[in-house]
What we know:
The complex is a heterodimer of chains A (about 400) and B (about 375). Chain A has about 400 residues and is of the alpha+beta class. Chain A has helices at about 5-20, 30-35, 60-70, 75-80, 80-95, 95-110, 225-240, 250-260, 270-300, 305-330, 355-365, 375-385; strands at about 115, 135, 140-150, 160-165, 175-180, 185-190, 200-210, 215. Chain A starts with 6 loop residues before the first helix and ends in a 22-residue tail after the last helix. Chain B has 3 domains: about 5-115, Acyl-CoA dehydrogenase/oxidase, N-terminal domain (Butyryl-Coa Dehydrogenase, subunit A, domain 1, Orthogonal Bundle), CATH 1.10.540; about 120-220, Butyryl-CoA Dehydrogenase, subunit A, domain 2, CATH 2.40.110.10; about 225-370, Butyryl-CoA Dehydrogenase, subunit A, domain 3 (Up-down Bundle). In chain B, helix 1 packs parallel to helix 4, helix 5 runs antiparallel to helix 6 and helix 9 (about 300-330) runs antiparallel to helix 11 (about 340-355). The two termini of chain B are about 25 Å apart. The chains are: A alpha+beta (about 400), B alpha+beta (about 375). The interface of A and B includes residues 278 and 286 of A.
Amino acid sequence: MAQEITAAQMRARVRNLLEEAHPDRVDQFTFRGKQYDHGLAWVHFPEGYGGLGVSPGLQAVVADELAKHARTVYDDMLINPIGIGMGAPTVLTHGTEWMKKHLLRRIFTGEDIWCQLFSEPGAGSDVAGLATRATREGDHWVVNGQKVWTSFAHIAKWGLLLARTNPDVPKHAGLSYFLLDMQSPGVEIRPLYQITGEAEFNEVFLSDVKIPADHLIGREGEGWQVAITTLMNERAAIGGAAIPRKGGGSIGVLISLWKSREKSSFSLESEVLMRERIAKLYIESELLRITSQRARAARRAGNPGPEGSVAKLAQAELNKRIWECAMDVLGANSLVYEPGYARRRPTSRANEPRAVLAKYQFLRARANSIEGGTSEVMKNILGERVLGLPGEPRSDKDIPWKHIPRNG
Amino acid sequence: MDISFTREHEELRQTVRRFLEKESTEAVVRKLMETESGYDASTWERMASELSILGLIIPERYGGAGLGAVEIAIVFEEMGRVLYCGPFLATAALAAIILREAATEGEKSQLLPEIASGKTLATLAVAEEVGGWSPDAIAMRAQRDGTGWRLDGVKNYVPDGHVADVILVAAKADERLAMFRVESKARGLERVSLPTLDLTRKLARLTFRATPASLIADKDIRDPLSRALNFGVAMLAAEQVGGAQRCLEMSTAYAKTRLQFGRPIGSFQAIKHKCADMLVEVEFARSAAYNAAFALDGEDEAEAREAAQIAKSYCSDAFYKAAAETIQIHGGMGFTWEHPAHLYFKRARAGVVMFGASSEYRRNLAASLGL
């Protein structure tokens, strides 16, 4: 039952925390551990689990007060996005008491990085069709299979694993959700190199990996229901990403590239066309920004509407068009690719010149309309869940998973 | 600047919606669009006496409600949903705003109360023979005539110009741009109702032949006129959001019930995705229109100007696309006179060029961005 704390009282609690530990004076794990102990990690969680059992809207007050009194400001989305954005809500809602006591604090401090093991080579948009198999043997489960597109697997302590425990029932009914110790024997992690040459993601091969029975989250066969919690929180976490300032972000880069263009490479007529094109992209960027703000305000007020799903779809498509336009602005120079294709883990691009960054982003943006839900799936979701249109006819709903045609 | 609505905003919206559900049904729209006047005088009177919306942006000391762009935008959105037929844009928005921004105290205290009470219909005449709503495009020149003035020339595409009691005319006078008032029965004024593509919005061609006119602003009106046109653009944008939303509702409802090949056509992805695309554009249009309304109520003129340019560019196109796809989704039925889709399509198409082409607004936006 949520108790009532005013914003002023919340601020006072933050100041109490700062007297005990200050982010400018102690390290991340120490400070955030204290923040957790004070119930200021995620204030809507119950007391004793890093929260105070109050409205989630008050978290913004905590962040604001911390930012006022410290130079060091921690961003959950940079420290442990999967752990904080997905692992913690899943553990809180479906986890055992042992999990809540032993895992939540270390998620928040960042001592334990988490990853998500859902997608497989044969299960992307249709993730419920996944094949990684968990078989019960005595007091543990034995897992075999392969996961893909796993961010942070190479540095994670724990993974959120969705696996098939019953191939004889329809696909959604045969899944179970596990907590996987990423250091278990049999877990092999390989970098997954992408079109930019880097590996933001990994493949994870699971060969006879043993998971203790009490690391099952929720009940056997209820994995899909638990996964819905994770996926809903993922969408909220992505939706909660920082909204760029007016004229900032990718449109800002495009406009500055245009203004500093090689003038001789454009005829007067094509300049007119480019201005029109860039003005339209500016308009769409502004409207995306405003619509994202409206979505955030509606979520905070407890009235999530279509604005959030609309924004994800629009952002993916707009981003691709902005970077395509940037490549056109660069003209023949876009034949050259300064970022290079070195096979490595991603490094920060903070200090790259804009033209170089644009070329990289042009390639990277191709994934925007695929990751986190393809644009085609997003349109189905908008059509079906927001507008209430009937679902697609499905040929795999009521038959045992083992009979559903799959790629060999 | 946050776009958020208060409970009072919601109450206003619901009140106007319920009123229009009774007074502006599809049957009423179809009837009024075939008439010369294009509006219902008793509905207009009730808009004043029951709803007090004719004077929504008129200051209280002149008998109005003293509210702002956001409140009247909500009314425009509701009117756009049902294709309300009447001089609300002309009188309650365009005339009211230019009077409020530029007229002398004497003119304001005479005209504004009459507008708020429903007694006087008014409109703003800017565009000339070939269209063009920018202050720079105005060529009509007023001549002094004794102690007064006279006008010669043509103002075209004047909203409700044929029923307005008072026509506010922008014309050059000596070295500046000025605003004049012409009475509907003035000598030498010829008013012709144009056969419009969009029968739900009446436009007139006004020919002035030594027509007496009185000056209602004692300063150059270039800046107030620009602001008034931005206001008009934002109101049209809000109206377009209402129309586009209605199109989305019609399309979605049809896609759920129309059966072909044994299932609702909305279960086919091509139709489903058209609806999803329409939803995205309606939400963006909503952001654009209300961003403009909130900006107009704010202090930052440059921000208000840019917001109006964005609203004009986006909302006209979004409504037009939504209406076009609504016809498409309805198949053969969407092409009939009987189905309302064409009424929205024509209102949307007219809006693409009303107040100037979207590409002109984008050109100005590009210039202010330094592109």
